[in-house]
Amino acid sequence: MKVFTLTAHGQSHQVTVHLHNYYQNNRLAIQLNSFEDQAPYAVVTVNKPEVLLADNEVLVKDYSENEGMLEFLVRNNIVTPTPNGVQSGFVWLPVAVVNDESVWGEVPNPYSMDEEPEYNQLDPAPYEINTLTGKSMWIIKDYRIWAENYQQALELLPLIEQA
Which pLDDT does position 42 carry in this prediction? Predict the structure, then answer.
């Protein structure tokens, strides 16, 4: 059982993290318990049955008495934030992915909560393909460029613009 230090409202608390399921819909929930006596300290998730979530996703309660909870969970690699969330009344409920317990407490993923991960971008599909020559046409800046691949079309663009 891993023990974490949570600083809330100017005080530090030793807590353990427990996963359980909400009885209404069996959705994943995260609860913090006091390390000393294992008494419940805080439930850090919210159950909104009408919100579609993956099995390993949760809605984090990061307002009111739980303000700063998302930062605590991310800093301790318990969850990975996503850019998604839902508005519930006057508050925003961020969606987070619950990490495997084996990585809790380790250095979290390299993305900060303010940045989205950089995904490998796929080249856009060609506008047209010539089956006889094998070349494809991409429309870039209103120019129709025939090339073997998108990268080559991008390399030809400055030559076309100078002409």
Answer: 94
The answer to whether 59 and 53 are in contact (CB under 8 A) is yes
68 Cβ neighbours under 8 A, 6+ residues apart = 8, 62
Q: What is the pLDDT of residue 111?
A: 56
Q: Between the CA of residue 152 and those of 145, 148, 157, what are the distances in Å? A: 9, 7, 9
Q: Note the pLDDT tens digit of each residue in 101-145.
A: 989 988 775 654 555 555 555 677 788 888 787 788 888 888 899
The domain spans of the chain are 4-103, 128-162
**In angstroms, rounded to a whole number, what is the distance separating the alpha carbons of residues 126 and 96?**
36
Q: Taking a C-beta distance cutoff of 8 angstroms, is the pair 125, 110 a contact?
A: no
